[in-house]
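Dear support,

I submitted the protein below through the web form. The confirmation email said the job was done, but the results page showed an empty box. After a refresh the structure appeared. I'm attaching both so you can tell me whether what I see now is the final result or a partial one.
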Amino acid sequence: MHRICLVEDEQSLRDMITLNLELEGYVVEAYADGASANALFSKPFHFDLVILDVMLPHFSGFDLCKEIRKHASVPVLFLSAKGTTSDRVAGLKLGANDYLVKPFDLEELLLKVQILINGSVQNEQPTAQQIGKYQVNFTTFEVRNPQGNLLHTFTKREVQLLELFIEKEGKVVSRNEILDRLWGAEQIPTSRTIDNYILAFRKLFEPDPKNPQHFYSIRGVGYKFLRE
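What the results page shows now:
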């Protein structure tokens, strides 16, 4: 079942939305104020959609969206009585996926919820992957050991390269494919740049970097990756 977080201070509206979402088969966790929701969003969480009222006690919906976007890409839908173009633009610039003006039609809300959740599921990438003994979080860019200790925080390009290797696991990935995927039309780096990324991965993930078990060099072609 898909899980939805609803933050709405008006009780009658919160109850109505919760009831109708549950009738549609969603699991709903509802909060009445921004402070309670902020405590939730300040740590890792799992929802398929977050619905935020903009005008909330203690923390506004805009403030909550900023907190969410620090470590999660979950779809966010704003609800607000303020429906000017500038209000909508402000919400979308903060990372919201959609904006619904009160009073709204229930069918429109349910349709937006369905579209946002279905789009999220189709585009969803695993937020964490195991490489050897280590856990890589592709949302926070962090690598942690089996005890949960932070070992390293990746750059965006390092994460993109890891995502490519995981997508092509067990297959040989050529240097040209890496260059096309990571740099595209940008200034092309030297082949040594890619080698340095691989060396860094080996130092982090391999028990013996000189005898790799995960990141293999295929002479004259490129690289091959295996998680186990």
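Response: this is the final, complete result; the empty box was a page-load delay. The chain has a mean pLDDT of 86.
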